[in-house]
Design brief:
With 64 residues, the chain is an all-beta fold. 0% of the residues lie in helices and 72% in strands. The protein is built from no helices and six strands. Strand 5 and strand 6 form a beta hairpin.
Amino acid sequence: MCQISVVLEHEGQESEKIMDGVSKLEVTADGVLVSTLFEEPKLVAGARILKIDFLGGIATLSPK
């Protein structure tokens, strides 16, 4: 199973770790919904996926 970390980038800097061990990312009209196996899903409102580094295990989001 592949799990990744999700960070939120502000003005080119990774400034906030949103969640570790993320197993599901879902783009919604309100932002990006991130989920782990054992925690409640968290909505990152007004965010978009900037990049996903599969080898590094990091998904980077940024404000729209």
